[in-house]
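Next up, sample data.

:::
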Amino acid sequence: MIINYKELLYAIFNSDPYSENGQEFPIIVYDILNSGLPVAVFKNASTCAKFFNTTPNVIKCTICRNSLKRNRYKLERVKLDERI
């Protein structure tokens, strides 16, 4: 159980605060080599690109093609449900 908390804290510390003002939906980065655990949450492609040291267009292309970043990380856009 402690391992799950460490992974959650790791994802939170790698994340940036979500802003509802933007039109883009948040991007969640999953580590598929570590049981698909979340690594970070980003509010847009620009901040995610800084994390991976690349451009926002590369991040958008990776998400669109549903490919892996660095053969390890799955990037996914999520829509936040307002009912929660």
Remarks:
- The first strand starts at residue 27 and ends at 31.
- The chain has a mean pLDDT of 80.
- Strands lie at 27-31, 37-42, 68-69, 73-77.
- Helices lie at 2-13, 45-52, 56-65.
